[in-house]
Every structure is written in C-alpha cells, then in structure tokens.
Amino acid sequence: MEERVDRQCQQRGRGGITCIDNRQMRTERAQMHIGPDIVAVMVGVAVEGPYSYRVPEGARVERGSIVAVPLGPRLILGVVWGKPKDNIAHNRLRDIAHVYEVPPLSEELLKLVDWVARYTLAAPGQVLRGVLRSPEALDAPRPVIAYRRTGHEPEKLTPARLRVLDTLMDDMAWPRPALIGASGVSASVIDGLERAGAVEKLEMPPPPVVLKPDPDGNPSKLSAEQNQALEQILALDAHAFGVALLDGVTGGGKTEVFFEAVADTLRAGRQALILLPEIALTNTFIDRFTKRFETRPAEWHSDMTPAQRAKVWRGVLDGTVRALVGARSALFLPFRELGLLVLDEEHDGAYKQSDGFTYHARDMAIVRANLAGARVILSSATPSVESRNNANQGRYAHVRLTSRFAEAAMPDVTAVDMRTDGPEKGEWIAPTLARAVFAALDRGEQALLFLNRRGYAPLTLCRACGHQYQCPDCSAWMVEHRFRGVLMCHHCGHEMRTPKSCGECGEVDSLVAVGPGVERVAEEAAARFPDARRVLLSTDMGSHAQLRERFAEIERGEYDLIIGTQLVSKGHHFEKLSVVGVLDADLGLAHGDPRAAEKTFQILTQVAGRAGRASRHGKAFLQTYHPDHPVMKAMVSGDREAFYAQELHARAAGGMPPFGRLAALIVSANEQQGAMTYARQLLSAAPMAEGVRLFGPADAPVAMIRGRHRVRLLAQSGRDFDLSGYMRFWLERAEKVRGDLKVQVDIDPMSFM
C-alpha cells in the first residue's frame, strides 16, 4: 500500500494525487490575506470538487479552515481547499456565511481526503463528510458554571444553606452539579445564596475529555521475546513513516508490546490512534489501557452520544487528546500530531467499510501514516495474506512473537471427523467434544462452544408441503430466532412472527427447523450439561453495554459454559477457559470467495486460541467433514507457515491479491432486467487495456437485497496497474445511470456476495 502511495503521488494526471510540498503550501497560505478574496471550498456533500466563494471583509481564512457556506437554500459545512482554479467575477459568487474559530485541518488530512477519493472513486465531498462528523464540536465549548464562597454570611442561615457553605469551606470553586450532589440541596438553595451575596458564580473552562496518559505510569513487564519485538518496532523512526507487522500467536502479549510503542510515541510529543474491529472489544481493552497509562483513553465509536463525540473531535483537533481508541471511522479524525497508528486484529473484515464510500481502514491507515510521517503497527495472530506478503518482501518490518506469555502453552487442536465420529441424528455436538466439555466442567474450568451462525436455524420449512420461508425483499432464507419468536433476514433485517401454521398450505404445527444456529446449540447444551452455568453470546442477544457486562462476568468466572458466535473469537482473555469446540468448522469454506481459506483459517485460529491462555493446558476440537482440507491440516499440525506459503502460491498462480488487483461494480435496480441490461451496456463501454480481465455481468450470489436486484462485474489486473484510474475512465465514458439504477464501485473487494 505504501508503495502505491508513493507511486500515485508521482502519477500526476493518471489518477494519483498531486503532492504539494511544504514550501508551496506556505506560499499559498501567505497569499490568503484579509479582505475581499475568492477561495475554493470543498463542501461536505457528494460533489466532485470545490466551489468558489467570496471571503467576507474582515474575515481571515487559510487552507483547512472550516466554514459554513450557502449551497442552494441551505448552509453546508465545508473546508477551504485553496485558491480557485478558474477566475470568476465577484458579482457571481456568494459569501462564506461563517468561519469557525477552530484550528484549520492539517495538510495531511486534506491530502488524505483527496487520496481516498481518487483511490475509491468516491466524491471528495463525500469523504470530507466523514471528517466533519461532529458539527457540534465546531461551536465554542460551554463554560462550566461553578460557585465559590465570598466570605459574606447571609442573614437567614437554614440547614440547607449551611450544608452548602460547609461544602465550600475549602475556598475552592465547585461546579454546580457537583455542589448539588455533595450538599444534597436543590438548585434553588444555591441561587438563594447567590442573591444573598454569600456565594459568587464563576465561569470555568470545561475539563478535558480525558487526562493525558502517563507514558511512564505502569510499564508492562515484558518477556525477553517481547522486549526484542519492542526493540524492532522502536527501530522505526518515531518521526517518519514505517510499518511493522506484529505477528504473534494468540496469548503472546502483542497488546503489551504495542502499549510500550504508544508510550514511546507519547514521549515524543505525538498522538496515538488505536483501531479496534469490534465495539464489544472496547471495554476490556480500555481497562488494560487504563491500567498501563493510569487514565482512560478517548473513545470513538457508534455507541457515543453526539455530545461525547463533539468533545472528542474537538480534543483531537486542539491536541488535548493524546491517545484514542476507536472504530475504523476514527481514521478520519482531525489529528494534527499523529505519530502512531495501531490496528489490532488487522486481518479482521470489519475494517472494510461497505456503506457510503467503500474503503479498507487498514490500507487507508497506511496511506494516512505515509502522509503524516507516522509509524504503523499491524497486530494479529493471523495476519492477512496481503500483510504477510509485504512482510516477506521486506516492505514491512516483520516482528514475531512465537510463544505465549508466562507458563501458557498453545492449545492442542483435534479435527473431529463428522463422517465417522459425528453425533446422533438431531444432535450437533459430537461425542468426542461432549466428553472433553464434561471433563473441563468436572475440573472447575470453562468450555466454549463456537458456531459462526446467528439464530436457531438457517432454514425453516413446512414438512407437509415443503414450503421454505424466504425474505420478501432479499434472495435469502429467513433465519429462525426461537428465543425471540421471529423469523429474520440477516441481510435487510426484515422480521416476522414465527407462524403457527404454514403460510402456503395452512397445515398447523408443521414447520421444522433445518440446520443449526447458535441458539440451537445452546438448547442442546442445556439438555446435555444441565448443571453448567451457561451464557449465550451473539450480536443480536443484547446491546453493546449488555454484551460487555457478559464478558466481564465470564472473566470473573461466573459462567462455566460459553456458547457464542464470532463475537467471542478474538480479543478476550478467559483465564479458566481450557476447552474450545467449533461446530460446523467448514462453514466458511462453502462460499465462492477467493479468500475463503484465509478467512476460515483466521477465525478457527482465533477461536481455538481462546483456550489455555493462562497456565491451563488448552484443547480445541474442530468438527469437520473435510479433515484433509489444507486449512484443517494446518490447524491440527500448527504449521501456520505452511498454510501461508500454500495460500500465497495459490494467489500468485491466479493473479489474485496481493499479486494482482480486483475491482467490483455492483449494479442494482428495482427490476432484474433493468440491472442486467445496464450492466451489459457497462461491459460494452469498457475501455480496452492490456493486462485487464473483465468477468460478468452475472447475478450476485445474493441477487436481491432490500428489494433491489444486484448484478456484478469484476475487473482483474496486475499489481502495478492503476486500476482505480481505469475504473474512473470506464465509468466516465459509460452511459450515465438514470431512474432507479445505481452503481457501486468497490476497489479491493472483501466480500463477493
């Protein structure tokens, strides 16, 4: 990715960004003086370029200044992009409505917006909207109202007033809410004391979002191998771009290593950003961060309120936030001194943004670090094939942790052949796995049953007529969620109450569940292990706060048997967990996905790695119908290097990433014929280019979502080909979409559904 940044910076006019050196930027900024002037403003809507506006008399702006401008009948947030390219008469322009009194966005962030837009084929204004995510942060923060004693005694001294005055005996100013809480009085009592002249009201600046983390607060006690890994990372210049792949086994202490790298960044006076793939991981991670740095980090994720997000956004911009933990969108926060980006579980598919403009946070993090002169740490026990290849080629520093921390050993992995050792009909837990679970429970240890499928059963049909329940808006089966009593589509979220009779033939009590979901496994576990304290963990089984509480209870040992989906597969440390059973381990291999083997290996390694993370010896059991598959062989043998070598060889032979590039066009419409017709027109408009192969059009595997029919085209090219530029040229010469047609561009697709 970083090579691609450098290469595209030089490709002026061929789809790459135009790199502007610092001297040129200083000249441009100096030219923006007080007085009537014209500037280019990029607005935070899906537009292809900036619009020209007049700077009002007396206002001062520079590149990166955040402004409000009229666009049609509305005021829209925007950013001053520079001088306009075209000369436009003043009398044809509208004035900037408002200039916000906040520091301008950094040069590297503006370049990032341009780069992401060019690479993903998104409109620059659409990417900028991801930067301006918190309009509330642009207003000056409200002062905190506080009170302090004046020394004057009121004529009337009631018990309530006396409690307030006693609370203020330290001569310190108390914020109003704190004073009410400490004295146990109503606000009217304080107002009365103010009128009597006994207390005075003060306006204080609001406290910082979080306290600054102490890099020397509580340093981790690293093993010899961890110290060696840290030295490799710190060998990268703290003020220059560099990438380290922290490739360590599950339970190897990767978090402790990159925490010390965060501390080194803070000592250097720069900001650190840590990205996590799942919000559910945040709570445990923040507890570990707080223990190490003696204060909480700032957070950025979808569970935050607008007020919380505003404080964090402004704190990042003004530099008071020095370390932040967040989801992928935190990549576009307005850091001004970014020195380190950490991507924990860098292989995780959740880093790919699929709504709005499509981007992969891992790749864009490397771009941002390149532009900011910052270090990147990609951390994973199962690195992506792309990252492993970059490490093999020497583009990334390859930092290894080969053993678990302290006394812990890697778990023994056993493949349970379901053809010869499968369960009885109507059951899903094989006898071998059941015996191992019983043994763990008898020892007072925990066991985990894992199935990466939500709900009770993936298919519901009528045993009388064979009718299968399908989503009315998607080409997908309705999944039974028995605990909630509904049938649900996992693509669009459509729900219906589970019917008592067949909707086709009317037969009563004829519906039967086909196949297992995690709820069905939980039902069987309740019958098999009735004395075990059980907990079911799935993304649809409660809010993020409730899930975090369940994880905390598991860590405290309040449950014996854990049943869960991919939610439990990464980022958690359960000391008492000794046995892991994976049901339907072949599940991920059933799709026509070129990354199917990689994804299956990653999730199996991650979930098996939950076992035996303390001093207990862990065991993992994989229920499979294909024990001879390379993935299963690699899991049983523990030879991950052989798996990566084979996968890289297969990718190279097929010209697949990282040895080639892919781009997808997804055409959708209300009617299948309309989508297919336009897709064929797109194909006929494709420019001829050596080294580009086109596939399709064809119906997508999930051919309809939310009532819209989907047709896919796929472009494949060599690694050094500017595929983004090719796709842009292709779409520019194609017939424009009309009516209900929509075309989505996905550069470097991760999903082929």
Task: Describe the fold and architecture.
- This protein is an alpha/beta fold.
- It has six domains: 131 residues, GIY-YIG endonuclease (3-Layer(aba) Sandwich), CATH 3.40.1440; 61 residues; 178 residues, P-loop containing nucleotide triphosphate hydrolases (Rossmann fold, 3-Layer(aba) Sandwich), CATH 3.40.50.300; 174 residues, P-loop containing nucleotide triphosphate hydrolases (Rossmann fold); 60 residues, no CATH class; 88 residues, Ribosomal protein S10 (Alpha-Beta Plaits, 2-Layer Sandwich), CATH 3.30.70.600.
- It is 31% helix and 23% strand.
- β3 and β4 form a beta hairpin.
Features:
single chain, alpha/beta, GIY-YIG endonuclease, Rossmann fold, 22 helices, 32 strands, 23% strand
Helical content band:
25-40%
- CATH level-3 fold name of the largest domain: Rossmann fold
Given this structure, which CATH class of the largest domain is correct?
Alpha Beta
Largest sheet: 7 strands, parallel
- How many domains? The number is 6
Portion in strands: 15-25%
Global morphology: globular
How many individual β-strands?
32
- Average pLDDT taken over every residue: 86
Gap between N and C termini: 25 Å
Rg result:
29 Å
Strand order of the largest sheet: 11-12-10-13-16-9-17
The chain-level structural class is alpha/beta
CATH architecture title of the largest domain:
3-Layer(aba) Sandwich
Please, what is the CATH homologous superfamily of the largest domain? P-loop containing nucleotide triphosphate hydrolases
Quaternary status: single chain
Count of DSSP H/I helices: 22
